[in-house]
Amino acid sequence: MRKTTLITGGAGYIGSHTALQLVEAGRCVLILDNLSNSSRESITRLEQLSHSNIDFIEGDIRDAALLDEIFSTFDIDAVLHFAGLKAVAQSVRRPMEYYANNVVGTLNLCQAMARAHVFNLVFSSSATVYGEPATTPIVEALGTGKPANPYGRSKLMIEELLTDLTLADSRWNIAVLRYFNPIGAHPSGQLGEAPNGQPNNLLPCLTQVAMGLSSALTVYGNDYPTADGTCVRDYIHVLDLAEGHLKALQVLQAEPGLHIWNLGTGIGYSVLQIISGFEDVTGISIPYRFAERRAGDVAECWADAGKAERELGWSAQRDLTQMLIDSWRWQSNNPRGYSAQPAPLLAVGMK
Ligand code: NAD
Ligand code: WQD
Fold first, then answer.
1. Which of 21, 36, 125 for a ligand 1 pocket mutation test, highest count of atoms within 8 Å of Cβ?
2. What residues act catalytically?
3. Helices (H), ranges, the chain
4. HSE-up of residue 256 (Cα within 13 Å, Cβ side)
5. Are residues 219 and 170 both part of a single domain?
6. pLDDT tens string 315-343
7. Would you tell me how many other CB atoms lie within 10 Å of the CB of residue 60?
8. Residue 257: what are its φ and ψ, rounded to 5°?
9. Are 168 and 63 part of one and the same domain?
10. Which among 134, 189, 250, 338 would be 20 to 30 A from 38, CA to CA?
């Protein structure tokens, strides 16, 4: 039996891009996803892009019996754990769901891994665990802060749970990857972010305006202590993130213990810079209006990505133009996400 990497949440946005890179690197993968925020079509697209069959199980990480069956059927040597709920506003309204799905789900996964003697885990954490950062760029050594919502607190709880596991049992090798703001899509226009329901993140909201689905972008706050008054974030291409997972997996197996790495570019862009960058790349004008600050937003959040560069030999390679071109190609090709056939490619990269 071939060694297999289990990818929880692998039908989702970041998991699907990472799965593709693993398969392209010659690894055998098994995707487990309950499709609560994704669709089977992403697996079909993965198979088309990789020219191979992808093992996929529709199921939930909270199902202990299913996990035991998976670990006894496949020769799994590592788990990339993307599965989780991630909508910040929804987490405020439905905290129990977020703690049950994210925290209890992760605990359940780790228990099943321990029963199966699989101790290599890469976890999708978030810069949200830093809360309101005292300084930028954010270094891992700064320590965690107070996340502003149940989603962020669920990520912090999981980080603490994973830390305790490695302290209690030296067999655990765990990489905690703190993503900054993932955007972009596969350059084929076939894989991208397709959340169920209304988007809240900047890029999907912006592309909805570009597609005429919404009349203007709401910019939350223009009175922050930043150069133009709007919030600054570290946007990172999803393919760069995916590459970070491959590196983490390699280093993890060679150097046991708990590792924490920021995955960001180290460059911050304001909301207005993103809007004008998008207009430059697509030639589409984006009407916007300023509104009150959004609760829980911090003025600036961008990474010091030096630790990942030194220890993983990884750094983000794709610039903002590439991120915006790929985001727009995906959105304009798949206006309804995976639920409709792709339309012909729109020309991008030209005024
Ligand atoms: P996504 O929603 O596209 O992917 C998550 C996948 O997990 C979905 O396909 C969903 O159906 C699945 N899932 C959810 N709960 C499950 C469960 N109980 N059992 C099985 N499958 C389940 O999200 P994404 O953007 O790809 O994020 C992946 C991970 O990265 C998440 O854990 C998220 O919290 C984290 N993260 C995302 C961002 C971001 O901005 N996208 C930033 C930082 C961290
Ligand atoms: C970016 C900036 C908004 C929409 C979130 C999560 C974080 C992580 C990544 C998972 C902010 C502004 C947005 C809009 C706007 N996810 N904005 N108009 O808030 O930095 O991070 O996603 O872990 O946990 O909190 O990303 O894309 O929502 O916002 O002005 O319609 O764009 O106010 O300044 P955020 P975002």
1. 36
2. 151
3. 13-24, 40-50, 64-73, 88-93, 95-98, 105-115, 150-168, 202-210, 238-254, 271-282, 306-312, 320-333
4. 9
5. no
6. 999 999 999 999 999 999 998 899 865 44
7. 18
8. 110, -165
9. yes
10. 250
